[in-house]
């Protein structure tokens, strides 16, 4: 009652008590004192309240007493609980000791019981052995007695036992007759021949009945009955016949479709599911079924399909052989999923080999023979379509026969001389633009070879595969590279006209283009189809060497043909220049009436060169384009250089020559070869020597583009000037010409401005020219009035020529020419 009173009257004490009893909140002395002072009247914690220390002290003393009472009470309770805990611990320990004692007693009893059980079991086993030792002879005696009884019936010739007369007991009868048959085998024939024959007859009858019963059960689909009969027949000699009957009946109605391979796969899957439920050795039965299918059904089917075309149609024969062998191996892969014994891979391989061995032995000979005849037919059909009779040209192929020097023919000597000197020996052949190369023919040859490689991979023995693949590759080289590409190259070489031919048609670049395309296809097949077959054999190096030789020998002929074609191009340019270029072009009789920008020969040569450059770009690829264009550009430059040195040049003729070279240089830019452009830049600079004033020749020769040239070259161009032989009169003539040209320029300009609306600045410049008469002002006015890119008419071109001459005569050689 006192405790309850304290809790009701003093909340702080109750809170403290709750802390000690429950431990729900941590006890903080400062907070506890603050709360106690706040709740005590006169504690001074509340605002407006007087502080009463006595009362607060009294409240503290009371709380301290309460806490002491609470502490004593809790301490007594703790001691009581400790005593109770100690007491229970002693009781628990005592109980555990008692349990341990009882457990030990139970374990001892268990050991005794186990020993007793082991003893009894030993006695029982011993007793069982004794009983079995007594019972086994007894059972054997009983069984022997029964067998003797049945044997006596056979001796008497009358079978009275129910086991032989009751058809439902055929299983027991089969067991008895099987044992009697084994016993009869041991009896002497002279005394027991009759009974042995009777037992054998009964044995055979029961065996036939069991097989008949098995057959009937199989037709009815009674798997359980089939399993029982098969188990009985397992000890009979006719068990294998039972398996044969099962296999035969399984195939009845199984091969009704045209696809014998698919029917065989379905049949084996169906039998695989039930054979384990019938026979004790299912893997043997299934293997025997597969062997029967291969040796009977498949072999007869393969023979029918192949023998029909073996001698009459090699193409169809090879296709059928490849197809049948592929489908057979695919069937074998499906059968590998079944349990056929330990070495099923070898078992199936032997079955396949037994079917195809007679066809695979000479496969490669048939393949090579067909490939040879087929390739020859494709080529001949192509040449017939072109009405072309194939002729022997040069070596006629890539393979060069080794002969002794004494036996070399005239044709061989000519061919070797032609190859080393690049001279067109013998008459030229007019191909009428025909390259005698056909992508259709090439695709057909590559397709035939591709199929041959596929058949070779499938049908060849692994040890013979690289050798057979090499033989097929040799056929491809012979007909594609030698008989087709090489023949086209030889024909193309023979069809290239001589360099002095007029209006010659050049078709060899078309041959180069098509040969390049064809050889890319050839190289792709080499990598895609041949390399996988020979990659790990010594034949790899042999094939690579053969391919390398082919490439090198073709490149020799291609280089030879391209070189001769370039010579013909240069020859055509020479004919154009010879026919179109006149001596009066560069030394006109009336230099005041020159109305052309560049000569007609220059126009035609540039047009011809641009066509040939475009043709070369379309005919070749890669770095070959730049190589050939550089060679053509160098020869083109040499031709123009030598051509320019054949003429003498007046002032106006020199300007026309510069204009021609400028056009040649513009044409040379189409080559996109730095060396060619540099050569024509230098030639253009050399042509400036034809028009520059004699006093400025030394300055021009020391310029950037001409400083590194041989002095003989510079001198040879200076010698081409008309005024070269005039000596000291050259300057006077030059001054006179300059005055005449200046007057002509003013006259033409006056005529032009009457028809042209000029700006005020241009008119003011013209007045200055008219009154001052300076040629340089005329030039600068003209250059400002007609900037680059303006379409200049003939009159303006006359201005341009006159202005250029005046400018160069005055020492400003770079302003106009550039």
Number-wise, the strands total 0
The largest β sheet comes out as: none
Number of domains: 4
**Count of separate DSSP helical elements:** 30
Reading the helices and strands in chain order gives: HHHHHHHHHHHHHHHHHHHHHHHHHHHHHH
As a percent range, the share of helical residues equals: over 70%
Distance between the termini: 130 Å
Average pLDDT figure: 77
Q: What oligomeric state best describes the polypeptide chains here?
A: single chain
Mind explaining what this structure looks like?
The chain is mostly helical and 818 residues long. The chain folds into 4 domains: 34-40 and 52-156; 169-356, no CATH class; 389-570, no CATH class; 620-747, no CATH class. It is 74% helix and 0% strand. It has 30 helices and no strands. The longest helix has 104 residues, at 53-156. The chain is flat and about 155 Å long. Mean pLDDT is 77; it is low at 1-23, 395-412, 422-426, 728-803 and 805-818. GO terms for molecular function: small GTPase binding.
Lay out the secondary structure.
Blueprint: H1 2-9, H2 11-22, H3 29-39, H4 53-156, H5 162-165, H6 170-186, H7 189-220, H8 223-233, H9 239-250, H10 260-278, H11 282-307, H12 314-335, H13 344-360, H14 363-385, H15 410-421, H16 439-459, H17 465-495, H18 508-534, H19 539-580, H20 600-619, H21 623-644, H22 651-669, H23 674-687, H24 697-701, H25 711-718, H26 729-753, H27 760-772, H28 775-785, H29 794-809, H30 813-817
Helix pairs in contact: 1-2, 6-7, 7-8, 7-9, 10-11, 10-12, 11-12, 11-13, 12-13, 14-16, 14-17, 16-17, 16-18, 17-18, 17-19, 18-19, 18-20, 19-20, 19-21, 20-22, 21-23, 22-23, 22-29, 26-29, 27-28, 28-29
């Amino acid at each position: 009652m006192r405790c309850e009173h304290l809790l009701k009257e003093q909340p702080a004490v109750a809170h403290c008590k709750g802390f000690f009893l429950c431990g729900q909140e941590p006890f903080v002395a400062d907070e506890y004192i603050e709360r106690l002072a706040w709740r005590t009247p006169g504690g001074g914690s509340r605002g407006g309240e007087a502080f009463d220390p006595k009362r607060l002290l009294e409240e503290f003393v009371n709380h301290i007493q309460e806490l002491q009472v609470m502490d004593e009470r809790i301490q007594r309770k703790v001691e009581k609980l400790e005593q109770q805990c100690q007491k229970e611990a002693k009781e628990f320990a005592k109980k555990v000791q008692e349990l341990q004692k009882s457990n030990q007693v139970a374990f001892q009893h268990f050991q005794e019981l186990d020993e007793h059980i082991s003893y009894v079991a030993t006695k029982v086993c011993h007793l069982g052995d004794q009983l079995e030792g007594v019972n086994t002879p007894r059972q054997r005696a009983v069984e022997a007695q029964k067998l003797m009884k049945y044997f006596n019936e056979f001796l008497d010739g009358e079978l009275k036992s129910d086991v032989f007369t009751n058809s439902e007991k055929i299983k027991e009868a089969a067991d008895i007759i099987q044992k009697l048959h084994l016993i009869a085998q041991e009896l002497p024939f002279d005394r027991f021949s009759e009974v042995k024959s009777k037992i054998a007859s009964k044995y055979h009858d029961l065996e036939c009945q069991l097989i008949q019963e098995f057959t009937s059960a199989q037709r009815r689909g009674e798997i359980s009955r089939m399993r029982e009969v098969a188990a009985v027949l397992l000890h009979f000699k006719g068990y294998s016949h039972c398996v044969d009957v099962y296999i035969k009946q399984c195939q009845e109605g199984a091969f009704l479709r045209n696809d014998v391979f698919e029917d065989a796969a379905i049949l084996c899957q169906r039998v695989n599911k039930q054979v384990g439920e019938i026979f004790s050795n299912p893997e043997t039965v299934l293997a025997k079924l597969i062997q029967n299918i291969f040796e009977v059904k498949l072999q007869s089917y393969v023979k029918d399909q192949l023998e029909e075309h073996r001698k009459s149609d090699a193409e169809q024969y090879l296709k059928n052989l490849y197809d049948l062998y592929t489908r057979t191996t695919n069937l074998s892969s499906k059968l590998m999923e079944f349990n056929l014994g330990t070495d099923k891979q070898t078992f199936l391989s032997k079955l396949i080999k037994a079917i195809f061995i007679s066809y695979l032995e000479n496969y490669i000979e048939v393949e090579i023979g067909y490939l040879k005849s087929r390739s020859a037919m494709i080529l001949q059909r192509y040449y017939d379509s072109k009405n072309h009779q194939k002729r022997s040209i040069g070596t006629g192929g890539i393979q060069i026969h080794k002969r002794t020097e004494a036996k070399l023919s005239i044709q061989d000597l000519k061919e070797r001389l032609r190859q080393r000197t690049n001279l067109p020996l013998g008459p030229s052949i007019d191909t009428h633009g025909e390259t005698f190369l056909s992508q259709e023919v090439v695709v057909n040859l590559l397709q035939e070879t591709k199929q041959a490689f596929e058949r070779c991979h499938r049908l060849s023995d692994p040890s013979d595969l690289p050798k057979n693949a090499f033989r097929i590759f040799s056929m491809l080289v012979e007909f594609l590279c030698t008989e087709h590409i090489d023949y086209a190259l030889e024909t193309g070489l023979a069809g290239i006209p001589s360099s002095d031919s007029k209006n010659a048609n050049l078709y060899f670049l078309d041959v180069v283009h098509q040969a390049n395309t064809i050889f890319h296809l050839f190289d792709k097949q080499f990598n895609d189809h041949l390399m996988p077959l020979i990659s790990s054999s010594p034949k790899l190096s042999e094939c690579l060497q053969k391919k390398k030789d082919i490439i090198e020998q073709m490149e020799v002929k291609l280089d030879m043909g391209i070189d001769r074609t370039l010579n013909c191009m240069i020859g055509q340019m020479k004919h154009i220049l010879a026919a179109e270029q006149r001596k009066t072009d560069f030394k006109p009789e009336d230099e005041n009436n020159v109305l052309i920008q560049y000569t007609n020969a220059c126009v035609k040569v540039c047009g011809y060169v641009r066509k040939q450059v475009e043709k070369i770009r379309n005919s070749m690829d890669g770095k070959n384009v730049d190589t050939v264009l550089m060679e053509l550009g160098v020869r083109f430059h040499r031709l123009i250089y030598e051509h320019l040195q054949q003429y003498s040049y007046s002032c106006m003729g020199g300007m026309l020559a510069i204009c021609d070279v400028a056009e040649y240089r513009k044409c040379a830019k189409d080559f996109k070869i730095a060396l060619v452009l540099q050569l024509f830049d230098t030639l253009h600079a050399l042509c400036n020597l034809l028009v520059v004033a004699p006093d400025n020749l030394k300055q021009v020769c020391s310029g950037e583009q001409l400083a590194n040239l041989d002095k003989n070259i510079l001198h040879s161009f200076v010698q081409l000037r008309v005024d070269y032989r005039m000596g000291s009169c050259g300057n006077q003539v030059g001054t006179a010409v300059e005055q005449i040209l200046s007057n002509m320029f003013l006259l033409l300009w006056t005529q032009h401005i009457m028809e042209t609306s000029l700006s005020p600045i241009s008119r003011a410049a013209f007045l200055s020219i008219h009154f001052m008469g300076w040629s340089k002002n005329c030039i600068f006015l003209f250059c400002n009035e007609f900037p680059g890119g303006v379409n200049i008419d003939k009159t303006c071109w006359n201005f341009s020529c006159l202005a250029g001459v005046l400018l160069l005569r005055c020492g400003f050689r770079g302003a106009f020419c550039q």
